Amino acid sequence: MKQLRRRTLFVLFFALALLAGTVLLCARYFIHGREWASSGVNQAAYAGGALSSGALYDRNGLLLYDCATKTYADTASMRTATLHLIGDQQGNIATGAKRRFARQLVSYNPITGLSAEGNKVYLSVDATLNQLAYEALDGRKGTVALYDYTTGDVLCMVSSPSYDPTNADQIEAVAEGNSRYEGAYVNRFLSALYTPGSTFKLVTAAAAIETLGREVDSFSFHCTGSYEIRGETVTCPSAHGDLDFAGALANSCNGAFAALALELGGDALEQYAQSAGLLEGVEVSGMTSAAGRFDVASPGSLNLGWSGVGQYHDQVNPASMLTLMGCIARGGSAPTPRLLTRVTSQSGVPAALVSRSESAIGWDKSTCEALKTLMRNNVTEVYGQSRFGELAVCAKSGTAEVGGGLSPHAWFVGFLDEPTHPYAFVVVVENGGGGSSVAGGIAAQLLRAACGEDEK
Q1: For the segment 17-39, what is each residue's pLDDT rounded down to a tens digit?
Q2: To the nearest 10°, the Cα dihedral for 66, 54, 150, 409?
Q3: pLDDT band of 346, cuts 50, 70, 90
Q4: CA distance 125 to 342
Q5: 3-class SS of residue 235
């Protein structure tokens, strides 16, 4: 009897273990089934190492890539302008949607399994705006992005240089390291770091507004074209004369902001750069951008002065800067930029949930409102409203010195203070020269096109 009891208990234990294993397997199957189905080792979903089902579209339904036929958009200019969004055939561009959104492209049901057709994946980008922005860069290296700070939708994301992923000669030139295509595999919007130049003065300005309080209202500075710190000099492009706080930002006076940096201190500037989200990456539809850098310089030093101006060792990622612009526009928080907006079956039935996330900065709403007023003043008083038509643009330019005898990087960042066009933007032109003239010109073209101003 004892032996029979032991055998019975063993069989019962084995049956329970089998049941538990089956339940666990079923649970994992339902939870991870789509991930397994879209895995690169699944030969039913991949052919020759490339996903063989599904298609990618822009926000207006324009086909950008068909996985089954491995075909891109119809025109070479469109294929080039959307390359970093879609990805190349060889898989060298890590940010490509056909690689990053493989799970959404695969049509999978836990009951019926894998479908040969795949899903339709709609991206937030307007491919026509991408094409316009790429053409505006005119062969120069850099990045241009525009997003809706009320929804998070990235309407334009361009990185240059790029190439036509169907052109064998261009593919070979990139692979061989042709200087014309230097860094063509890098999505500069997500993966690059740049010296921010005077765009960083927005961080210094926020620190001054919140730390110095009423002193900002009575701030005054006389710019002679240079500002001495311990026998060394911070230079300005010109002698600006007497400036108040708004004038110092609008004229981008290096001397005034170096003086503010010395008063605020390196620790405070680092804290405000951190709270602005510039020292950590931002997650854009599952892809984390490069983290920025701010080195705290010695108190009272020349380097501290330059760090407050946006030079020294300051480094910023364009995606993080774009998110900051959206947060300022929205009073401290805004939806995080996203590229994925909708997933349907071939018949149009929703096939997957698309999440949204929120980004927030550690600045008071009143500080954001003050910056908005200051940035609007920059445009009306210095940059010129006429280039933007009737659009209420709030902006800051940057001309970031990079050394080595190279021309500075040109920045132009900001947003529209308009409910009907809630767009934030960032433009970086590597070694482009003047921020307002070069990057600002590209921003003006993009904004006018996005808002239909050119049609009026």
Answers
A1: 676 666 665 456 455 544 544 44
A2: -40
A3: confident
A4: 12
A5: strand
Query: What one-letter code names the amino acid at 182?
Result: E
- Residue with the two structure tokens 């970093």: 84
What is the residue whose two structure tokens read 């049941």? 19
Nearest-angstrom CA–CA distance, 289 and 276: 15
Contact yes or no for 229/262 (Cβ under 8 A): yes
Among the listed residues 400, 415, 418, the one whose alpha carbon sits nearest the alpha carbon of residue 446: 415
The residue to which tokens 């590209």 are assigned: 442
CATH number, domain of 271, equals 3.40.710.10
**Distance separating alpha carbons of residues 82 and 100, to the nearest angstrom:** 15
Q: In the chain, what is the straight-line distance between the N-terminal and C-terminal CA atoms, in Å?
A: 96
List the domain range (segments joined by +) for residue 265: 197-338+359-455
Does 19 map to a domain?
Answer: no
Helix, strand, or coil here: 311?
A: coil
User: Which run of H or of E encompasses 322?
Assistant: helix 318-329
Computed from CA positions of residues 41, 42, 45, 48, in that sequence, does the dihedral angle turn out positive or negative? positive
Classify the C-alpha dihedral 132-137-143-144 as positive or negative: negative
Query: Which residue bears the tokens 């003043």?
Result: 377
What is the total count of domains within the chain? 1
Measured from the Cβ of residue 226, the count of other Cβ atoms closer than 10 Å reads 12
Residue 171 covered by a domain:
no
| Alpha-carbon distance values, 139 to 81, 146, 163, 251, 431 (Å) | 11, 19, 11, 29, 12
Q: Is the pLDDT confidence value at 40 over 60? A: no
Is residue 300 included in any domain, yes or no? yes
In a domain? residue 292:
yes
Residue 151, classified by CB atoms within 10 Å of its CB into exposed (0-12), middle (13-18) or buried (19+), is middle
Q: Which two tokens mark 328?
A: 């300022």
Residue 422 in contact with residue 447, Cβ under 8 Å? no
Structure pTM? 0.88
Q: SS3 for 217?
A: coil
Q: Are 400 and 194 spatial neighbours (Cβ–Cβ below 8 Å)? A: yes
